[in-house]
Amino acid sequence: MKIDGETEYKTKDLGESSAIVISGQKIIDIRRDGKVCWFIFDDAEKCEEISREYFFGNLQGSLRNYNETMGILKNRIFSNVR
């Protein structure tokens, strides 16, 4: 999700976040809003492009890397439980 004028891209979707990471984008922050974790990325335009490819089933990549990245993100979420 990109808000007009912002360069950051944020999503609470773990699968989408994993897809964005394996596509070369870096997480700049993970923010909590109650029980919801938001993954924050830089370069909103690129992340939106990757997100569209992911949701329409056109994103290419290693399923092994995707699975490993999802595990890493889960660990980051649960290691920061407050």
What can you see in these coordinates?
There is one protein chain. With 82 residues, this protein is α+β, with helices and mostly antiparallel strands. The chain has one domain (9-79). Helices cover 46% and strands 20% of the residues. It contains 3 helices and 3 strands, in the order βαββαα. It has helices at 14-22, 44-55, 63-79, and strands at residues 9-11, 27-33, 36-41. A 3-stranded antiparallel sheet has the order 1-3-2. A hairpin with a 2-residue loop joins strand 2 and strand 3 (36-41). Helix 1 crosses helix 3 (63-79). The longest helix is centred in the C-terminal third of the chain and has 17 residues, at 63-79. The radius of gyration is 12 Å and the shape is globular. The protein starts with 8 loop residues before the first strand and ends with a helix. The mean pLDDT is 90.
Tally of alpha and pi helices: 3
> Helical percent range?
40-55%
Structural classification: alpha+beta
Mean pLDDT: 90
Largest sheet: 3 strands, antiparallel
Report Rg: 12 Å
Shape field:
globular
- Spatial strand sequence of the major β-sheet: 1-3-2
How many β-strand runs?
3
Share of β-strand residues: 15-25%
Contiguous runs where pLDDT drops below 50 for at least 5 residues: none
Q: N-to-C SSE series?
A: EHEEHH
Our count of domains comes out at 1
Alpha-carbon distance between the termini?
25 Å
